[in-house]
Amino acid sequence: MIVAIDGPAASGKGTLARRLAGHFGFAHLDTGKLYRATALHALASGGDPGNAAVAEAGARKVRAADLGDPRLLEEDVAQAASVVAAIPAVRQALIAFQRDFAHHPPAGAGAVLDGRDIGTVICPDADAKFFVTASLDARARRRFKELRGCGGNAIYERVLQDMKNRDARDSERRTAPLVPADDAFVIDTTALDADAVFALALDHLGRVRAAKAPPRR
Fold it and tell me: How would you list the strands of the sheet with 128-133, edge to edge?
């Protein structure tokens, strides 16, 4: 079973993806880390992440082992990741990695992938699709709290502006823009905690699985 979860930054899609994967024993891939790893390779080379050739070279260096690098959590890497993700050659270079994970998960009987174009581009054939969103203010406050919790010296106004910029890049890019799949189940997490979101997702997945189950004889 393939579960696709898309949504903007700090919407709660990663938390939901991890909980669903753990609940069902599925493999989980945070596809955003692929773009962060690409950005990290580009920055480490001394090149400009916005340069298509530099970014594509970084994407082709990405390996599964890169996804656990703690440097992927750094804010400059996150910003550069949003830049490289808008480059068509980068997205093309990473498609095979994502699809192979989805259709041949390293563990379990299924895979949960979260990102921004999973249900629309990477796995349009996914068994279940979610689009997780929240208001800009709610997402900015979540990211601000996360950064402060990690010891960062974050300023809310800057976090808010950075998120606006990322939202614009993600939704306005020509290649694989951030939009809900036509058949995605939309969850607005603005006023919901993680448990409520998880319950909604489980209920929807239960209905999806029941609909796909072979009829009893």
Answer: 27-30, 111-115, 2-6, 128-133, 185-188
pLDDT score recorded for residue 180: 97
Residue 121 to residues 125, 181, 209, Cα–Cα distance (Å): 9, 9, 22
- Any idea of the CA torsion for 103, 109, 114, 119, to the nearest 10 degrees? 50
Q: What percent of the chain has pLDDT over 70?
A: 100
pTM of the entire structure? Answer: 0.91
Among 205, 32, 184, which residue's Cα sits nearest to residue 110? 205
DSSP for 146-169, please give it.
Answer: HHHHTT----HHHHHHHHHHHHHH
Angle between helices 136-149 and 156-172 (to 10 degrees): 120
In angstroms, the CA 118 to CA 133 distance is 15
- Contact of 6 with 181, CB cutoff 8 Å: yes
